[in-house]
Amino acid sequence: FRLAIETHREDPELAQRYVDIARRVAMAAKVRLPTEYRRLVCRHCKSFILPGVGSRVRIKQRREPHVVITCLKCGKHMRIPLRRREN
Known about the structure:
By secondary structure, this protein is an alpha+beta fold. It has one domain. The protein contains three helices and three strands. It has a three-stranded antiparallel sheet with strand order 1-2-3, with no helix packed on it. Strand 2 and strand 3 form a beta hairpin. The chain is globular and about 40 Å long. It starts with a helix and ends in a 6-residue tail after the last strand.
């Protein structure tokens, strides 16, 4: 994923290829990708979504505060709930 982030500006297709390879390796090894990497992949179209470039990130305050990540390729939303830290 680090290579995908670094090469995304010059060659977005190569960055997508890096992400596809990382996902396939994780699936073959039956290992879950870490949360910070899973959030960089659209759950619907499986494209690499770099925040601010391939996706739009908004914070919503309805009912419970949550982050909404919108994929700019397919238009689907991913919602991530925000929880308060307990002291």
